[in-house]
Automatic annotation (TrEMBL):
One GO biological process term: carbohydrate derivative metabolic process
Transmembrane segments: 133-152, 235-253
InterPro entries referenced in this protein's UniProt entry, alphabetically: Homeodomain-like_sf, HTH_RpiR, RpiR-like, RpiR-like_SIS, SIS_dom, SIS_dom_sf, WH-like_DNA-bd_sf
UniProt keyword annotation of Transmembrane present: yes
Molecular function terms, GO-annotated: carbohydrate derivative binding; DNA binding; DNA-binding transcription factor activity
Domain HTH rpiR-type, residue spans: 1-76
Coiled-coil ranges (or none): none
Domain SIS: 123-258
Keywords, sorted A to Z: DNA-binding, Membrane, Transcription, Transcription regulation, Transmembrane, Transmembrane helix
Name of this chain's protein: SIS domain-containing protein
Length: 285
């Protein structure tokens, strides 16, 4: 419906409106979560032009037009789209394991950028200075959130994993302030609770870090510090986000290397003493 309206009315658009139309036809997802001012600045046109364009297509202003854009985007972000694509792909029948390895190698090769590194360095500084650090992720993203929490918890005592169903998340965040830091991890399809909780944290003036797949995801557009962990379009994998999380853990640990190593050693000795780990040297009967 959205694209059909543009194509059907294209010849009746003004030159400025055609600039807007051409952009939407080539990369409409970029405006899905932008305000009318942000979208107009992106195209170097006036907000009034964006409004008139929305009305020209039959919408009652920009908000209704944007909902139509978001609806089109939502249809593309169907759950497990990458997994479905991999299963349906007839070209990876011979050696699925090698194909998966090769795709993930390419993801890692294309993941690094100066933009990502600058935000990565900023995140490390925020972690070191934060009073409390909260981590939140739902559904498939929860496994990465828990892993991140588990690794940092080995040598830090101010790490809190937020989970639905364990008390109320908003109760746990009631006293957060600008001295705290919250990590939000989410990938398509983005969960409503994650976006709403991010908005709540911003209302409390708490610094937010959004780890997500794209600069135009709702996390990246709204978080104070976005970290982009690109995914392959052909495989559903968390190899990029796990790489970033591991790098964050190592970088934070290096900030006070001697203390970190000592805490890791003490933790290992305690768990060994309590018999948490299987003793391979124990004699068999």
């Amino acid at each position: 419906m959205f694209f059909r309206k543009i194509h059907e009315g294209y010849n009746n658009l003004s030159n400025t409106q055609k600039i807007i139309a051409n952009f939407l036809l080539s990369d409409y997802s970029k405006c899905a979560f932008l305000s009318i001012k942000e979208f107009s600045d992106l195209l170097n046109v006036s907000s009034a032009s964006i409004y008139r364009f929305s009305c020209k297509l039959g919408y009652n202003g920009y908000p209704e037009f944007q909902k139509a854009v978001q609806y089109e985007l939502q249809k593309e972000l169907k759950p497990m789209k990458e997994l479905t694509s991999s299963i349906e792909d007839p070209n990876n029948e011979i050696n699925i394991l090698k194909a998966a390895v090769d795709m993930n190698i390419n993801v890692l090769k294309n993941m690094y950028s100066e933009y990502t590194y600058q935000n990565f360095a900023l995140v490390i500084d925020k972690i070191v200075r934060a009073r409390k650090i909260y981590i939140f992720g739902l559904r498939s993203s929860f496994c990465t959130a828990y892993y991140f929490y588990f690794m940092l918890k080995q040598f830090m005592d101010n790490i809190i994993l937020l989970t639905l169903g364990y008390g109320d998340v908003y109760d746990n965040l009631q006293k957060i302030n600008e001295k705290d830091l919250i990590f939000f991890i989410s990938f398509p399809p983005y969960t409503k609770e994650t976006i709403e909780l991010l908005g709540y944290a911003k209302e409390k003036k708490t610094c937010t870090v959004g780890i997500t797949d794209s600069k135009i995801s709702p996390l990246a557009l709204n978080a104070d510090i976005p970290i982009i962990a690109k995914q392959s379009s052909k495989t559903y994998s968390f190899v990029s986000v796990m790489t970033i999380l591991n790098a964050i853990v190592i970088a934070v640990g290096k900030k006070n290397k001697n203390k970190t190593i000592q805490l890791l050693k003490e933790n290992q000795e305690y768990l060994t003493k309590k018999g948490v780990y299987y003793n391979i040297n124990k004699k068999r009967r």
